[in-house]
Design brief:
Layout lengths: L9 H14 L2 H5 L9 E3 L5 E3 L1 H12 L5 E11 L3 E14 L2 E16 L2 E11 L15
Parallel strand pairs: 1-6
Antiparallel strand pairs: 1-2, 3-4, 4-5, 5-6
Length: about 140
C-alpha cells in the first residue's frame, strides 16, 4: 500500500483527489481518505457508500474504464481549524454513442485535519447544470 502523502491544506487534498481521479490511480485515491469507519461517498445517481471498503470498490469499478476527464470550477470553500467544506462544479467529459458530452455535477467535499494532514471525510456529487449559481433565493425547499 502506498504511503499517504502529508497534505498541509484542504485545497492540496482536493487537488490530489481530482488528480488521482484523472489518472485512475486507485492507491493514490484511497491514500487521501480519512481512516474512519464513517467516511462517505456518493457518486452521481448512486447510493450512499459508507466505509473505506465500499468506497474503494466503487473507485475500482470507475477506474476500470480509465481516468475521469474532470475539471473543477466555481469552488466555494469554508475552512475551519479542523474541518473544511468545499462546494464546487465538476465538469466531466463523458464519451457515449453520440460522441463526447460535457456533464456538470455539483459536488460537496468535506475534509478533516489529522496529525498527518488533511483527508477526505465525504465526497458527494450529483447531477447539476452549467447554469450560474444561485446566490440568493426567496424560495425555501426544506
Amino acid at each position: 500500500m502506498r504511503r499517504a502523502p502529508i497534505l498541509s491544506t484542504a485545497e492540496a487534498a482536493e487537488e490530489a483527489f481530482y488528480d488521482a481521479m484523472r489518472r485512475a490511480d486507485l492507491e493514490a485515491m484511497m491514500a487521501l481518505w480519512a481512516d474512519d469507519d464513517e467516511v462517505m461517498c456518493v457518486h452521481p445517481g448512486h447510493q450512499r457508500l459508507i466505509g473505506l471498503d465500499a468506497i474503494r470498490a466503487s473507485w475500482a469499478a470507475i477506474f476500470a474504464g480509465g481516468g475521469v476527464d474532470v475539471r473543477v470550477d466555481e469552488v466555494r470553500a469554508l475552512t475551519g481549524a479542523m474541518l473544511a467544506v468545499h462546494n464546487l462544479v465538476e465538469q466531466v467529459v463523458v464519451t457515449g454513442r453520440t460522441g463526447q458530452e460535457l456533464v456538470c455535477c455539483v459536488a460537496t467535499n468535506v475534509y478533516i485535519k489529522h496529525a498527518n494532514g488533511w483527508r477526505i471525510l465525504l465526497h458527494h456529487s450529483g447531477p447539476g447544470s452549467g447554469d450560474p449559481p444561485t446566490l440568493a433565493s426567496s424560495t425555501v425547499l426544506h
